[in-house]
Design a protein that fits this description.
alpha+beta; 2 domains; four-stranded antiparallel beta sheet; three-stranded antiparallel beta sheet
Length: 132
């Protein structure tokens, strides 16, 4: 836990950073309370100045408003005819990146693929998304 006042000189805030986590979706900064815009800019400066992070890959910080889920039905569980290769997360993520409908969607977790029934060739995909 670190007070963001110590992260950068001349920063004035009472927000405490519990931890910073990085994954393939982005960088998540968990704080002890909701941050103000001035706190967001302090955290943004700190993350961009970190030696462990490529600052060119850091987008504008934002606060999530709510977490929603999207259910996609009637997807082929074995997408390739004459193949036993299952639908995998990489396939889902590739499709999402290629479709303009999902341009401004931030995933809150990995997509989940569930086979409808043992004898079915259909799947359901659940996406947790941040409403920002």
């Amino acid at each position: 836990m670190a007070n963001i006042n110590r992260l950068l000189p001349n920063a004035k805030s009472d927000v405490l950073v519990d931890y910073i986590r990085s994954d393939n979706i982005g960088i998540m900064v968990i704080t002890n309370k909701v941050t103000q815009q001035s706190d967001m800019s302090i955290i943004d400066q700190y993350v961009k100045n970190s030696n462990d992070i490529n600052s060119l890959q850091v987008e504008e910080p934002h606060l999530p408003k709510s977490k929603l889920y999207l259910k996609i039905i009637s997807i082929l569980y074995y997408p390739h005819t004459n193949s036993q290769e299952k639908l995998i997360l990489n396939n889902i993520e590739t499709i999402l990146k290629q479709n303009h409908i999902f341009d401004n969607i931030s995933l809150a977790s990995k997509p989940r693929v569930i086979k409808v029934s043992p004898k079915s060739n259909m799947a359901i995909v659940y996406l947790d998304i941040w409403d920002i």
